[in-house]
Write a structure and sequence with these properties.
single chain, 3 helices, about 55% helix, Arc Repressor Mutant, subunit A
């Protein structure tokens, strides 16, 4: 997975952290969790606030 795989990342994060408070999650924590996903293989420096926000929104949608 790469940073642009927003929906796939959101599904993997939901599986890995089902009890997380996604709405109040800090981007620094989200950034770390994404990199810890087993299938994630992208440069940490390619992330930015816009991508992290998109991942967060996709994760919230995944829960609904």
């Amino acid at each position: 997975m790469r940073w642009t795989d927003v929906h796939e990342i959101a599904m993997e994060l939901e599986d890995a952290h089902p009890d997380a408070d996604v709405v109040n999650l800090r981007f620094t924590g989200l950034w770390k969790w994404v990199q810890e996903l087993p299938d994630f293989d992208d440069d940490p420096e390619h992330s930015n606030e816009k991508i992290l926000e998109a991942i967060q929104m996709a994760w919230i949608e995944e829960r609904e």
